[in-house]
Amino acid sequence: MINTIIFDIGNVLVDFRWRQMYEGFGLKEDDIEKLADATVRHQAWMDLDQGIITTEEAEEAYVKAAPEYREFIERIYQEMDNMLVQFDYSTPWIKEMKKRGYRIYILSNWSKPAYEACQDTALSFLPLVDGVVFSYQEFVIKPDQKIYEIICNRYHINPAEAVFLDDSEANIKGAREYGLHAIHFQSYEQGRAELEELLNA
Fold this sequence. Notes:
Layout: E1 4-7, E2 14-16, H1 18-24, H2 29-38, H3 43-50, H4 55-65, H5 70-76, H6 80-83, E3 84-86, H7 90-99, E4 103-108, H8 112-118, E5 131-134, H9 135-138, H10 145-154, E6 162-166, H11 169-178, E7 181-184, H12 188-199
Parallel strand pairs: 1-4, 1-6, 4-5, 6-7
Antiparallel strand pairs: 2-3
Helix pairs in contact: 1-2, 3-4
């Protein structure tokens, strides 16, 4: 029986709106793709999530990859709350599942600057959950098996009694290999329906 629900954040509880943000810079599609390659798709973005480089080091790597976009790169972390916006359903969903008696946890690849910029806005649901594991604090990112071990050991979660929702197939695969039930989240309607089906099985 499932008694624990573990949520990813990006594209599950919070809209990762990097494209809309870059469009707001007034960039054309080709420039948006080049800026994305130099930032959100760059290894330094993941290294920052892992907590193994500083924000300054990440920005240096982005500028090195695309010096012509320096002015936009410098705005990204200053305007992070425009990139990360909580979905309308997130807080009510968490409250509902808590009311129904489920333990609720967060497991996310997340950077320190993103946390600091959004803890009171996009991440305002954090005080409602039973525990949180952010990659930048643990120096490990999904789908590394160690991060699933960390959350389960820290909060005494039996993987066989827990379900993990994430938008990344690789992260879902990693969770299942660790022994967690897992749902590949693609939309609220689909993710909720699959969750209810599992909870009622």
